[in-house]
């Protein structure tokens, strides 16, 4: 058993306007940092439309296809832009999550990390936003439940921004527990503690700007880890955003690489207890390139160690 790294060069063809934080160089930073781990690697396939339609509407998928420019950029909102290569990259980012689920649940890999862009946790059922087109992790989760027949699955999102899209896409499914720690107040302005979903399967843990390791770890140990433990998932998925790092330019939390190592270890402990160590992690945010690379390395190094 090993850690499977899933990526694809099509992600380099999703080109954002100059100065945009969700840039091609992010993928170089992540893959470059992970190279010394010498992970087994697989290419992310294109998601099937049926995969996307587990969480998105036909109209949403059609609108994304139609918005793809032949050259230059098309802006879907103030933050979210498409180039000619963005559609293929978005399909592969979603397909990478599905491929990771298949690999882990089939026993091909002990766990998996999906190093793809664009990210996905802000995309809602009919709304691309926050650099995201499709809800990659939500798509992978629904595939795990519907195709592999799992009964319970947990998603933990430690990106500094609330995973509003993932929450919206999974909150009606009682089989999915979604836990998000995030800075608040901060864009997109969602993720209050009273947002618990119709089945009480949503847990939001807002963190005030300026807090760091002590507050983050305390919140995880007080709220998130016990909730995941009680839910006893058969698969654990992670939205691995590294923009809560103190060097990140888009937010104001003060985490360091060791915090991402620590939470990964704690989540792997729960996966060992409840789901045979099965973890699928997917890249979300992280916009200081040096901090992103170092944080991804800290995270995936734990996955590699625990997959043995």
Structure in words:
The chain has 9 helices and 10 strands. The protein is α/β, with parallel strands linked by helices and 308 residues long.
On the 0 to 100 scale, the average pLDDT is: 98
- Order of strands, main sheet, comes to 2-1-5-10-9-6-7-8
Poorly predicted ranges (pLDDT <50, ≥5 residues)? none
Described by its quaternary structure, the protein is: single chain
Number of helices: 9
Proportion of residues in helical segments: 25-40%
**Most strands sheet:** 8 strands, parallel
Radius of gyration: 17 Å
Q: What is the terminal-to-terminal distance?
A: 6 Å
Query: Total number of β-strand segments?
Result: 10
Q: SSE order in H/E notation?
A: EHEHHEEHEHEHEEHEHEH
Short synopsis of the structure:
The protein has about 300 residues and is of the alpha/beta class. The chain is built from nine helices and ten strands.
Based on the model shown, name its key terms.
alpha/beta; 308 residues
Topology:
Layout: E1 3-7, H1 25-34, E2 40-43, H2 49-52, H3 58-67, E3 74-75, E4 81-82, H4 86-106, E5 111-114, H5 136-148, E6 153-157, H6 164-170, E7 176-183, E8 202-207, H7 213-231, E9 236-240, H8 257-274, E10 279-283, H9 289-306
Parallel strand pairs: 1-2, 1-5, 5-10, 6-7, 6-9, 7-8, 9-10
Antiparallel strand pairs: 3-4
Helix pairs in contact: 1-9, 4-5, 7-8, 8-9
């Amino acid at each position: 058993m090993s850690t499977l790294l899933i990526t694809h060069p099509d992600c380099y063809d999703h080109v954002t306007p100059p100065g945009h934080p969700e840039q091609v160089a992010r993928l170089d930073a992540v893959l470059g940092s992970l190279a010394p781990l010498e992970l087994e690697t697989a290419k992310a396939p294109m998601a099937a439309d049926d995969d996307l339609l587990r969480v998105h509407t036909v109209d949403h998928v059609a609108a994304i296809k139609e918005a793809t420019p032949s050259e230059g950029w098309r802006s879907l909102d103030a933050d979210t832009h498409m180039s000619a290569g963005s559609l293929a990259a978005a399909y592969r980012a979603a397909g990478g999550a599905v491929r990771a689920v298949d690999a882990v649940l089939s026993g091909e890999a002990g766990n998996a990390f999906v190093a793809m862009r664009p990210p996905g946790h802000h995309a809602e059922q009919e709304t691309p936003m926050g650099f995201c087109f499709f809800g990659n992790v939500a798509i992978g989760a629904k595939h795990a439940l519907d195709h592999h027949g799992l009964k319970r699955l947990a998603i933990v999102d430690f990106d500094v921004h609330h995973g509003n899209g993932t929450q919206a896409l999974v909150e009606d499914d009682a089989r999915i527990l979604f836990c998000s720690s995030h800075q608040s107040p901060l864009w997109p302005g969602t993720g209050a503690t009273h947002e618990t979903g119709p089945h009480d399967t949503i847990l939001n843990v807002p963190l005030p700007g300026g807090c760091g390791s002590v507050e983050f770890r305390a919140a995880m140990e007080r709220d998130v880890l016990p909730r995941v433990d009680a839910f006893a998932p058969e698969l654990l998925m992670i939205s691995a955003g590294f923009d809560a790092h103190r060097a990140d330019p888009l937010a104001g939390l003060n985490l360091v690489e060791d915090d991402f190592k620590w939470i990964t270890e704690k989540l792997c402990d729960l996966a060992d207890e409840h789901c045979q160590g099965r973890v699928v992690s997917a890249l979300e945010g992280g916009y200081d390139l040096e901090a992103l690379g170092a944080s991804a390395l800290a995270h995936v190094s734990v996955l590699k160690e625990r997959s043995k």
